[in-house]
Amino acid sequence: MTGIVIDIDPTIVHLGPIELRWYGVFFALAIAAGVWLASRELRRKGFDEAHLLPLAIWAVGGGLIGARLFHVIDRFETYTADPLRLLAFSQGGLAVYGGLIGGSLTALAYAWRHGLSPWRLGDAAAPGMVLGQAIGRVACIPNGDALGSETNLPWAFIYKNPNSMVPRDLLGVPTQPYVAYEILFDLVLLAALWRLRSVFRSDGLLFATYAAVYAAGRFLLTYARTERVWVWGLQEAQVVSALVLILALAVLAWRGASQTGRQAPAISTVPS
Question: Which of 27, 46, 189, 236 is the most buried (most CB within 10 A)?
Fold first, then answer.
C-alpha cells in the first residue's frame, strides 16, 4: 500500500471546554487573506475606504451562513438526528459553494443599498475569493473532510487518525487527494485572474470568468469525491456547478457583447 499518510490530530490543544482545531486556524487565515486581497483590489478600483470594513463584515457573515446552510442541507438526516451539531462550526462542515453564494448575495445587497457598482465589486472580490478558497481547503487536510474516493494512485491520502472526520471503514484506505487537486486548481485560477484583471476592460467579465471556470473545474473534480448523490448520479457540488456555469456563461455573453471596449462609469454612491 503506497500513498501519503496523514496522521494529524485535528485538535491542536484543549483549553478547558474549548478546543483549538487546525480547521478553525486555517479557516480564519483563509478569511483574513481573502479579505486582504479583496480590499487591495477595491482600493485599486477606487472604492471609498469607508465601505471596506462593512463590505467585509457583510460578505464574511453571509458566507458563513451560506456555507453552513449548504452543508446541513447535504447532510440533513445527520443534523436532524443531532441538532446540537449545527453549532459545531470549528469541527468542519462549511460548504465552499454555500460560502461563495451567501457571501456574494450579501455583498450584492450592500452594493445595492449604497449605490455601488455590483459588477466592479465582483471583479475586485474574485481574486480574494479564490485565494480564500485555496487556503480554506488546507483546513480540510487534517480534518479529514472533503474525502476523495478510493484509489491505488501512489499519491493517495491515507488517513490514520481516528479523531478525523474520515469514516472508520476508510481509515487506512488510500483515497484520492481531492483537497490537493482543488488547492492546485484554485491557485492556477488565481494566477489566471490576476493576469486577466488588467486585460478585461468591461466590469463584470472577471467575476463571470471566475464563476464559469471554477464551476467547470469543480464539476469535474467532484468525480474524485465521495459525497451523497443528489440527482442523475450527480453530487450536490456538481448540481450547483452546472447551474452556476450556465448563469456565468450567460453573464459573460451579455457583458462581453454590451460593453466590449467600454470603460465602466465612475462609482456612484447614494445617501444611506
Answer: 27
In this structure, is residue 235 part of a structural domain? no
Determine what percent of the chain is predicted with pLDDT higher than 90.
54
pLDDT tens-digit series, residues 167-221: 888 999 999 999 999 999 999 999 999 999 988 888 889 999 999 999 999 999 9
The Cα angle at residue 2 between residues 136 and 181, in degrees rounded to 5: 25
Cα(first)–Cα(last) distance of the chain, in Å?
Answer: 62
As a whole number of angstroms, the distance between CA 139 and CA 60 comes to 17
Q: Which residues of the chain are under the pLDDT cut of 50? A: 261, 264-272
The whole domain housing 128 covers 4-199
Dihedral sign, Cα of residue 263, residue 265, residue 266, residue 267: negative
The 3-state secondary structure of 197-258, one letter per residue: CCCCCCCCHHHHHHHHHHHHHHHHHHHHECCCEEECCEEHHHHHHHHHHHHHHHHHHHHHHH
Quick one: three-class SS letters along 144-206?
A: CCCCECECCCCCCEEECCCCCCCCHHHCCCEECCHHHHHHHHHHHHHHHHHHHCCCCCCCCHH
Residue type, 34: G
Domain count, the chain: 1
Do 104 and 60 meet the contact criterion of CB atoms below 8 Å apart?
no
Q: What is the β-pairing status of strands 157-159 and 174-175?
A: antiparallel
Full-model pTM = 0.84
Q: Is residue 185 part of a domain?
A: yes
Q: Show Cβ contacts of residue 43 under 8 Å, excluding neighbours closer than 6 positions.
A: 49, 52
Tell me, yes or no, whether 86 lies in a domain. Answer: yes
* 258 assigned to some structural domain: no
